[in-house]
Write a structure and sequence with these properties.
The longest helix is centred in the last third of the chain and has 27 residues, at 156-182. Helices cover 76% and strands 0% of the residues. It is an all-alpha fold. It has helices at residues 2-24, 35-41, 54-66, 70-83, 88-100, 104-118, 122-134, 138-151, 156-182.
Length: 183
């Protein structure tokens, strides 16, 4: 037993010696109080994405959205809001893109940021109404779309979404009637 203790103690002594050697080799300056400044000043290995031209990126993002390339649109709108968080159009574009990708929680957050910037504009109300149509929350959609219509009665997008809402509600009613008959 005595040999085992001796070997165990020798291993502990060896570990302590290695630790002391490592500490002796450390740069004393790194142990100072302003280590955060030195770390921030050192070059990072990760690549940062280059700045983007916001107006060009907005045009490309909108075109990607219109052509159904929602993945590209999402990346561009996201980069725009990361670089310019005050860009309400980019937030609305990002929210609409998330809606098309069925990422509704992300869309909710993007709409929240846009709403803080511009309030309840007809466009905001219309987009939120469409958002709730996609989520099959027709009563919320109706309230928002009617509020948008009161603000801009001749807006064709609002009219289209109201028509879509009516169609979806009719489909739901027909589906319920069919289910009741089959029951």
């Amino acid at each position: 037993m005595r040999k085992t203790k001796t070997i165990r103690h020798q291993l502990i002594d060896l570990k302590m010696l290695l630790l002391l050697l490592c500490l002796a080799g450390c740069d004393e300056a790194l142990l100072g109080s302003n280590i955060e400044q030195r770390v921030a000043a050192t070059p990072h290995a990760e690549k940062s994405e280059p700045k983007i031209n916001v107006s060009d990126a907005m045009l490309t993002a909108k075109e990607s959205f219109r052509s159904g390339n929602y993945g590209n649109a999402e990346q561009l709108f996201r980069r725009i809001v990361e670089e310019n968080p005050q860009n309400a159009d980019a937030w609305l574009g990002l929210a609409a893109t998330y809606d098309r990708l069925k990422r509704f929680e992300n869309a909710n957050r993007a709409y929240m940021y846009a709403r803080k910037l511009v309030g309840y504009t007809p466009r905001m109300l219309n987009n939120l109404g469409y958002h709730y149509i996609l989520r099959n929350e027709y009563s919320k959609a109706r309230k928002l779309l009617l509020a948008a219509q009161r603000k801009e009665p001749d807006n064709p997008r609002i009219q289209n979404n109201l028509g879509l809402l009516l169609k979806k509600e009719e489909q739901k009613t027909q589906s319920l009637q069919t289910n009741v008959k089959s029951f």
